[in-house]
Amino acid sequence: MLRYGALVFDFDGVLVESVDVKTRAFAALYEEHGQGVAAAVVAHHLAHGGLSRFEKFRHCHRAFLGRELSGGEERALGGRFAALVEDAVVAANWIPGAREFLETWSARLPIYVASGTPEDELLRIVERRSMARYFAGVRGAPAKKDELIAGFARAAGLAPGRVLMVGDSTTDYEGAVQAGADFLGIASPLVPVFGPGVPVLPDLTGLCDFVLAGNIQRMAR
Predict the structure, then answer these.
(1) CB–CB of 165/174 below 8 Å?
(2) 206-220: per-residue pLDDT in tens?
(3) In 55, 95, 117, 126, which residue has its Cα 20 to 30 A from 103's Cα atom?
């Protein structure tokens, strides 16, 4: 029996090479406030991948502009951001190994997506990229990663420890820990994004071997 009964993927930077698209969008939204502010916003965005853009907007206004963001301003920023990114994400390249893995494994295990992208936008992107057939479920913001992972485990009838979360951010890692799932990081092995002992692959070309080997080190609970 395979160690994992279900897999959960983050989307941007894990299945699709779209992180730079969203980084440029954050810079564009805040450049009117000066290059210093735009640079700080980009740094925050990159340090908190997987977090909802609206949480990032609220933090950036508070921390870098010294004021709270109104509901109307937040909705306007969200609309501008979506206009900047959606078509580009649809056109973005696959992460190496992602499409091949999904083609092979989607018939063998339930595969889910848990993303910080607003759910309605995420569903459109997945549909427009003809990816929906691979997934048993696709969920996005405003739900938190731990809620999504735990919900997917329940939907698959599994204990959380038989679910593997594959992500590229500390938000993904923390969500897996909180849900009781295992975690695999997608990052450069030379850059310690995650803590010691957390397994990491540079992309998804080695994911099939990783899943079959089932040799992940259990995270400290």
Answers:
(1) no
(2) 999 999 886 444 433
(3) 117
